[in-house]
Design goal:
Elements lengths: L8 H8 L1 E4 L4 E4 L18 H11 L1 H4 L2 H5 L3 E2 L17 E2 L10 H21 L5
Antiparallel strand pairs: 1-2, 3-4
Length: 130
Amino acid sequence: MKMQATASFHDTIAWQNLAIDPGERWVVQRRTDRRTDHAFATHYHPYTDELIEKLNREGLPALLDADWQASLTVPLAPAVYQPGPYATGDFPSHEIDVSDTGAYSIYNWELFFHAPVLVATHLSKNQRFE
C-alpha cells in the first residue's frame, strides 16, 4: 500500500512526521520531545482592603503616598508557594501592579494616576486651586 502526499503545506508537514513500517504496515507518528513551562501571575488585587482602609482612615493624600504603596510588596515564594523546575520567569509577588501585562494593572493606573489627574484638571479648569 503506497500513500502519496498532497501538495498542501499542512499535509506535507504531516507526511514528514509519518513513517510507514513496510514489514508490519503500521503507521508510526513521530513527535518531538515536548517541554512545558509555566509562567505564574496573580489574577486578583491583594491589597483592596488595605487601600480602602487607608483611604477611609487617613484620606486621599495618604492613599497616594508612593512610599506607603512601595511598602505593600510581599513575595509569594518561598513563603507561600515553592516554584518547581517548570516555572519560568520571576515568581509573582503581592504588589500594586502597574506593569504592561498585569491582570489589574489598568485598574491601578486608573486609580493612582488617571483619577487624580482628572480631578486636578477639573479643579484647575474651575479655578479651584485649594
